Amino acid sequence: MLEMIDLTQTLDKATYEQQLHQYQTQLRILGYYLHQQQRPAILAFEGWDAGGKGGAIKRLTERIDPRGYIVYPIAAPKGDDAEKHYLWRFWRRIPTQGVMAIFDRSWYGRVLVERVEGFATEEAWQRAYDEIRDFEQQLVDFGAIVMKFWMHISQEEQLQRFERREERPHKAWKLTDEDWRNREKWDRYEQAVEDMLIKTTTVQAPWTVVAGNDKRFARVQVLRTVAERLSEELNINASPEHLHELPPLAAVVPVPEWAKAEAKELGIGLDGTIQPHTEKSTKKKTGKGTAKSSAKQADKQTKQQSKKQGKKKGKADA
Question: How confident is the model at residue 273 (pLDDT cuts 50, 70, 90)?
Answer without folding.
Answer: low
